[in-house]
Amino acid sequence: MPKVTVEREENLKKGRITHEILRVLNERPLQIPSYKGVSLSAVFLPYLEARGIGRRRRNNIRIAVDRLRRLRCIDHQVGDDRSTLRITSLGEKRLRQYSIENLELAPSHRWDGIWRIVMFDIPEDKKRARDAMSKKLKHLGFHQLQKSVFCHFTDCKGEVEFMEEYFEIQGLVTFVEARSLGRSEVTVRRFFKLK
Prior knowledge:
- This protein is α+β, with helices and mostly antiparallel strands.
- The chain has helices spanning about 15-25, 40-50, 60-70, 90-100, 125-140, 155-165, 185-190, and strands at about 30-35, 75-80, 80-85, 115-120, 145, 150, 175-180.
- Strands 5-6-4-7 form a four-stranded antiparallel beta sheet, sandwiched between helices.
- The longest helix has 13 residues, at about 60-70.
């Protein structure tokens, strides 16, 4: 693997090391030779260096691995000659949480003339999911047409489906592509700075 070093002044976003460790284990379980002297942080170093996290973060890696083991996000099974590190269902859930936190729409430099409208009617017993969906849509730059109707000009169907699955509100969200927004179009075009 090519060696990628992190600059001394660079600050990593909080949780990035944990996120990358979970991503490495999600790709495949790691087999470790069972002899004394091999630290778990040393096992992850080559994978994390390729992702831009350098050797000087060795202590941070050790702390993150210990925390993930304590939270039961990763499982360390020790055998006679080899031990195995793998992600657990709690770790997969945490990985999805990182994915929703880092979710962004792909930047679009040109508008294709189609509006993407997201509508939802989520019942009161799923209020937290409804509020989280609204908050995430606003964070992604959607324009709120009504209380539970949002629109955007970029293709975002995959992102909306991911949020629908993550917040466990499948079947309660409607995604529509339209050429016109009627009387609201002037306001929305101004919001997105479209001509």
